[in-house]
Amino acid sequence: MSYPDAFYLGDKGEISGALRTVDTAPELSIGGRTNVHYLATGASTGGHYGLYRWEMGTEPSGSGAHFHRTFSESFFVLSGTVSLYNGEDWRSGSPGDFLYVPPGGIHAFRNTDGPATMLVLFAPGAPREAYFEELAEIVESGRQLSEEEWADLYHRHDQYMV
Question: Fewest CB atoms within 10 Å of the CB: 15, 39, 73, 125?
């Protein structure tokens, strides 16, 4: 394996870092149970990756088993216990545990034992914010989607339920 082609071609470097402090409010709340901090979006990284801090509250929440065709997804547990599904079985993830899922890999996550926080990294940087914001709106409004509407939502956001 070798280094990729250069993205930056300047000679002296530039001042371009962006610090986000821990006290920055989350960009999204899903049903009052999950707070999502957009640490880096696909747009802010030029499509290289996206990174979220995913804070789950006391009520169980998470995703059903699914896969993506266009990006990998990784999960790093920061606090609490996160049940991680690797496509074969569920494992209890503790702080420091990590799950990498390549494109096409079946996965899911859930907090079943109270509050938990994890980092979610996806690469390349797909526009996942629109998917989660649409889910938050559905939860907030109480709107009930038909099977066709769910299928359309998932298809538009590279989410294939298993």
Answer: 15
Question: What are the CA-CA distances from residue 155 to residues 20, 67, 127, 131 (Å)?
Answer: 32, 11, 13, 10
Element (H, E) at 56: strand 50-56
Token pair for 145: 């989607």
pLDDT on residue 117: 98
pTM of the shown model:
0.93
- HSE on the CB side for 138, CA within 13 Å? 12
Does a structural domain hold residue 69?
A: yes
Is 14 among the domain residues? Answer: no
DSSP string covering 10-25 = -SS---------TTSP
Q: Are strands 108-111 and 34-40 parallel, antiparallel or unpaired?
A: unpaired
